[in-house]
Design goal:
Elements lengths: L7 H8 L3 H18 L9 H6 L17
Length: 68
């Protein structure tokens, strides 16, 4: 099956002569991809993220996301 099935309306919107629409869709897609990069390890690989030092915190502030 074609992975792009159902995206014809998006392609038609993008390929219109209206530059504002094309610019808007390009910006939307760029932001969407940029938002997904950290989730898929595009910015930090697992090893780099593991070796990155944690920020300093005051002793009274619990580390909620590291609870076991």
């Amino acid at each position: 099956m074609n992975a792009c099935t159902g995206t014809g309306h998006l392609v038609r919107l993008y390929l219109r002569r209206d530059r504002i629409t094309a610019t808007g869709w390009t910006l939307f897609l760029a932001l969407l991809v940029a938002g997904m990069l950290p989730y898929y390890g595009g910015i930090f690989t697992t090893e780099e993220a593991r070796l990155t030092p944690e920020p300093r915190r005051s002793p009274g502030v619990p580390n909620w996301w590291a609870r076991e």
